[in-house]
Amino acid sequence: MIMLFIRARLEHVAELSLPKGYTYTITVKDSTGDDERKGVEVTSTHEEELPASRGSANFALRWHRDSKMPAHLNVQEIQKEAKTKGKDILRAAYTAEDEGKFIGIVGFECRGLEVTDWHPQDGFTVKSSSGAVFEDVDLSEKEWMDYDEKLGESIGIYDLEWKLQAVKL
């Protein structure tokens, strides 16, 4: 399982999350070669039948025409807070208490490919410390700012960082 971990500096933000069924834009690499595909979009709501198999996947591709089985991945959304065997924290949202730590927000179960990068886009949900909710927040520039009328203060997400790491659950 390859887990996407994020870390950010938060200003008057209580929670940063992605909705279930979010479309992740990622880069994938052939696990046995050098082929790479950038800008691949994957979501847990898309299902593809795998040829010569009883299974399905959220994303599949053939690296070579003569490949018998396609490489594939499944998006594993986090349902409840958990810890990996390495004690990494996994949860569906990044909270104010998490500031400064990497928190795993989604997993990618991969066969025949590796996820090597993530490209943040819009679609984030931000809940401010006053309880105000901001929908469809764009973090493609790794930061976001707005004004919370309830709080009477500016709010923001700064210095968004991420890493992809293999984990054992």
TrEMBL record:
InterPro entries associated with the record: CXXC_Zn-binding_euk (IPR008584)
Record field: compositional bias (Basic and acidic residues): 32-51
Region of interest (Disordered), residue spans: 32-53
Pfam families attached to this UniProt entry: CXXC_Zn-b_euk
Organism domain of life: Eukaryota
Keywords, ordered alphabetically: Metal-binding, Zinc
Keyword Zinc on entry: yes
Annotated transmembrane regions: none
Homology family: Belongs to the UPF0587 family.
Designated name of the protein: G13420 protein
Gene that this sequence comes from: g13420
